[in-house]
Amino acid sequence: ENAEIHRKLASQEERLRAEQTTFFAFVAHELRSPLGILLTGLANLRRALPSPDNAARIGRLSHAAQRMSTLIDRHLRLQNLARTDFEPDFADEPPDLPALEALHAQQQLHAARSFQCVYRGEAFQPVSMDAELVTLALSNLLDNAAKYAFEDSPIRLEVDVDEQSASVRYRVINEGPGLPPELAGRAFQMFQRIMGTGREKGGFGIGLALAAHVATIHGGQLSCAQDGTQTCFTLDIPMRQTKAAS
């Protein structure tokens, strides 16, 4: 009897999650065009009204609109990666390439943050990967760390090529409140927000879900470990892909 109840609850949860995903995808597509118009209009308004007060107000509006645009882009990208006919573009790339590109992107978004990059092992040996997807995953992990780390603490990205295990390991490490215990095991599911830290930053956990999906596409995994105030997200991918590059 208990097994049947659990089965029904699991089935209901899966159905509700599918309906939630479908609804959000519809909303995302509908909002994309008007958001683009809004961002363009705000940029034009900033040039037309160059006073410091106006610039500050328009800047806040632009930031809010950009956050929504980023959320929509992440969701649509995740939906694309989840398609059964999606084909990653595997090629031999230096593992520092996605790390450097992700760091550059996040330094632009979080100018007040200190980012560090550390190389371990043969960090420049070519690895079979879809570099664009790995960059996307690392960008989301760095963005997540920048949002929830203590204000003055640096964000560290480690790149470690381990020939013995034939894998490349990316670690994103930060000091902060960490994940609440109740989120353990669910952090990489979509629509899981990191709450209860006293510093909620908004969002729906899409970035972590996207990073986990990139790991799966590469035959690897995304994991999270905590030690006191230190949180470490680890993206592991094999050096060689069993699937031929497209």
Describe this structure in words.
Helix content is 49%, strand content 19%. It has 246 residues and is of the alpha+beta class. The strands form 2 sheets. Strands 2-4-5-7-6 form a 5-stranded mixed sheet. Strand 6 and strand 7 form a beta hairpin. Helix 3 packs across helix 4. The relative contact order is 0.12. About 2% of the residues have low confidence.
Q: Report low-confidence residues grouped into runs of 5 or more.
A: 195-200
Number of strands: 7
Q: Label the structural class.
A: alpha+beta
Q: Taking strands numbered 1, 2, ... along the chain, how are they ordered across the largest sheet? A: 2-4-5-7-6
Q: Percent range for helical residues?
A: 40-55%
**Rough outline:** globular
Report the mean per-residue pLDDT as an integer.
81
Strand residues, percent: 15-25%
The Cα radius of gyration reads 20 Å
Number of helices: 5
- What does the oligomeric state look like here? single chain
Distance between the terminal alpha carbons, to the nearest Å? Answer: 49 Å
Sheet bearing the most strands, described? 5 strands, mixed
